[in-house]
Design brief:
Chain A: It catalyses: [E2 ubiquitin-conjugating enzyme]-S-ubiquitinyl-L-cysteine + [acceptor protein]-L-lysine = [E2 ubiquitin-conjugating enzyme]-L-cysteine + [acceptor protein]-N(6)-ubiquitinyl-L-lysine. The complex is a heterodimer of chains A (559) and B (152). Chain A has 559 residues and is mostly helical. Chain A has 22 helices and 12 strands. Chain A folds into 4 domains: 69 residues, no CATH class; 163 residues, no CATH class; 51 residues, no CATH class; 139 residues, Four Helix Bundle (Hemerythrin (Met), subunit A). Chain A has a 3-stranded antiparallel beta sheet. In chain A, strand 5 and strand 6 form a beta hairpin. Chain B has a single domain, classed as Roll (Ubiquitin Conjugating Enzyme). The chains are: A mainly alpha (559), B alpha+beta (152). The interface between A and B is medium-sized, with 23 and 25 residues.
Chain lengths: 559, 152
């Protein structure tokens, strides 16, 4: 509701300035006119496009009534604003914290409690071991209950077989607590010393120093940590006891991470540094349709970080995810760093994390998502049991050909690329500066409040302007990626380039305005702020729409 | 150089006073973390009668980190590549500080006795091994004679 109100105000002021002609620069006035006209046009054309596309879509496959419904819905002020950000309207998602994910995990396993009759912590370990595949867990469970518990380390092997082989002289009564011992000889460090020791029910007892070192090493792997001597698992309590700090939190975090990873269709971590929010998209069925129309599902976490749900990248309109990925990859490729990454690593086929093979065989297990694949053909490992060798010959040939053509293409387009890359970088640098500017804006608003007696709400136009500026810059930045992949001779591309320079000019104008430091002057030029910010906003949406047009019509062909 | 951990001293002592049959491991004079190792080919395997030289290095974090082991002698084996690198679980994910130099070397000897071409490191060797096991074993025997026979 609040956003809608603010937007309405914007619209209003903007229209107002239209009649009032507060711009003294005539060319700016002309631009404003054009921008306004364009905006209306673009929204209209976009609506009609939806209809046509939907028509096509239902011709191909008339079953998807749900998508039709979401996309044909009329655009409210709010969704117009969303469009301005290059996102699709009506994307329903929620922002979660790690804690609420954990609650979801507990919820997931709770109904299993009756079947398994073990504690929640153990159940979580079980589920994690089975990659949150409940069916597989239940299947294995009915096959071999006790073996399973022993295998995962939830149960001591000696409890299931009669007659323990292990000398349990220190007994179960001292297990899972720190014990103080005189002249204890530790198997790991071979030192004889008077020290605290730790052991589980299995009786494998080691000095606390070795145990702590061992646990700290394993904490980052995210797997269940077992006893040093056997597969019996340490519980979170034990880990905290051994390390003397609540370090099992780290393990819990990685367990939460693995849960999110396993459900990466619906969940996405906020990619911003040190942000621990997770976006949960309940219904992903319309994502394909969005992608087809070259919209990107931009979302915002509770910390106001905005990013693309599909590719977990920052807001990249007018570019779509495809262009973004190619562009980012390309710009990295130019650096020596990526050269190394390209020649020494491969992407996990499942989660796209870069993997370096530093030894061992071709049977790869991704440390992130635990996907098993073949290093040679980058496909699933399962069918490789017997016929692994077939992939060696096949791929190497292909690779050579690819390498050759890509080299030629790179040489040909290097000049063009350097130009666009410089433009892109310049905008990125400016965006960074704007960001610092934005940090200072809070102080400015306070100054306005103190010196001019302006209310906080009234001072918010400054923050709004900074946000608009940032959005404009980001759109401008990514538009160079789109331009790079577009057919330069096409008329629409030329229009797109014109749009770029218009937005660029508008952005610089607004940026200059935000440099003003004296509170009195700021208040004097309040209408200017509104005007210029409104103009930037309109130019941004015009550029984004134009870019989407290029993509939809296939003039921008990312290859 | 930091002083040698007691664990390494003890293991070294035991390797010398109570050696594993068919395996020798001697620390280098200059670097007591670097071992020169020989492993006899297991009886009944294509590597029988061969004496294979390996190098073993104990990293700074040993025993929390697995020792690094590599074959120096050329060997025809699906899980050992041309550079002598070994694909063995206890050297990677299944390492535990409770294991020792001697257990690792025993595992390597066991790997010689039972190659696993379905989880290959040397693809070409594994390919041959699956296509025609007998022929591959013959090659392994030939290589052992050629490269792993002690010089007179």
């Amino acid at each position: 509701m609040h956003t809608a109100a603010v937007d309405a105000e914007h619209e209003y002021v903007y229209e107002d300035d239209f009649d009032g002609n507060s711009f003294d620069d005539t060319s700016a006035e002309k631009y404003t006119d054009m921008a306004a006209g364009k905006k209306r046009n673009s929204i209209m054309s976009q609506e009609s496009e939806f209809e046509i596309d939907d028509q096509l879509y239902s011709d191909d496959d008339g079953t998807d009534a749900y998508n039709d419904y979401t996309l044909v819905e009329p655009l409210s002020t709010v969704s117009a604003r969303e469009l301005n950000q290059g996102t699709v309207p009506n994307l329903k998602y929620e922002c979660l914290t790690a804690q609420s994910i954990f609650e979801k995990m507990v919820e997931r396993v709770n109904h299993l409690k009756l079947i398994f009759n073990i504690c929640t912590e153990d159940l979580l370990s079980l589920m994690q071991h089975f990659d949150w595949n409940e069916e597989r867990l239940l299947e294995s469970w009915t096959d071999k209950m006790d073996d399973l518990l022993v295998e995962i380390g939830l149960k001591n092997a000696s409890e299931t077989v009669s007659g323990t082989q292990i000398d349990a002289s220190n007994g179960t009564e001292t297990a899972r607590t720190l014990n103080f011992r005189n002249n204890f000889s530790c198997m790991i460090c071979c030192e004889e010393k008077t020290t605290n020791t730790f052991s589980l029910e299995c009786g494998h007892e080691y000095c606390i120093d070795c145990y702590r070192h061992y646990v700290n090493d394993k904490l980052n792997s995210g797997n269940i940590i077992s006893c040093i001597g056997c597969s019996l698992a340490l519980k979170n309590d034990d880990i905290d006891k051994i390390t003397g700090s609540p370090s099992s939190k780290k393990l819990m975090m990685s367990s939460i991470k693995s849960f999110v990873q396993k459900h990466n269709k619906n969940y996405r971590w906020c990619p911003f540094t040190d942000c621990n929010y997770i976006i949960h998209l309940k219904d992903t069925s319309s994502l394909d349709e969005y992608a087809r129309l070259h919209y990107s599902p931009f979302v915002k976490c509770s910390d106001s970080h905005r990013f693309c749900f599909s590719c977990a990248f920052e807001i990249h309109a007018p570019a779509d995810c495809n262009v973004t990925a190619l562009w980012v990859n390309k710009s990295r490729k130019e650096s020596a760093n990526l050269n190394w990454v390209l020649s020494n690593t491969k992407e996990c086929p499942k989660c796209s994390v870069n993997i370096e093979k530093d030894g061992g065989c071709n049977h790869m297990v991704c440390s992130g998502c635990k996907y098993e694949f073949c290093w040679i053909c980058e496909r699933d490992w399962t069918p490789h049991g017997k016929s692994f060798y077939q992939c060696t010959l096949y791929k190497s040939d292909d690779d050579k050909k690819n390498a050759k053509t890509s080299l030629e293409v790179a040489a040909k387009t290097l000049k063009k690329y350097t130009f666009y890359y410089k433009m892109f970088n310049a905008q990125e640098e400016s965006a960074k500066l704007d960001w610092t500017l934005g940090q200072a804006v809070g102080a400015k608003v306070r100054l306005l409040q103190e010196k001019m007696g302006v209310s906080w709400i009234e001072g918010q136009f400054l923050a709004e302007s900074v946000r608009t500026l940032y959005e404009g810059r980001t759109a401008l930045k990514w538009s160079f990626a789109v331009a790079y992949y577009s057919d330069a001779s096409h008329n629409l591309t030329k229009i797109f380039v014109d749009n770029q320079s218009l937005l660029s000019a508008a952005v610089e104008d607004l940026s200059e305005l935000l440099e003003i430091k004296e509170p009195a002057k700021i208040m004097d030029r309040k209408t200017d702020f509104y005007n210029k910010a409104g103009y930037v906003e309109n130019r941004t949406s015009a550029l984004i729409e134009c870019g989407r047009d290029l993509l939809c019509k296939g003039i921008c062909k990312p290859v | 150089m930091a002083s040698l951990p007691k664990r390494i001293i003890k293991e070294t002592e035991r390797l010398i006073t109570d050696p594993v049959p068919g395996i020798t491991a001697e620390p280098h004079d200059d670097n007591l973390r670097y071992f020169e190792v020989t492993v006899e080919g297991p009886v009944g395997s294509p590597y029988e009668n061969g004496i294979f030289q390996l190098e073993l290095y104990l990293p700074d974090d040993y025993p929390m980190e697995a020792p690094k082991v590599r074959f120096l002698t050329k060997i025809y084996h699906p899980n050992i590549d041309r550079l002598g690198r070994i694909c063995l679980d206890v050297l990677k994910t299944n390492w535990s500080p409770a294991l020792q130099i001697r257990t690792v070397l025993l595992s390597i000897q066991a790997l010689l006795a039972s190659p696993n071409p379905n989880d290959p490191l040397a693809n070409d060797v594994a390919e041959d091994w699956i296509k025609d096991e007998e022929a591959a074993k013959q090659t392994a025997k030939k290589w052992s004679k050629l490269y792993a026979t002690p010089k007179q």
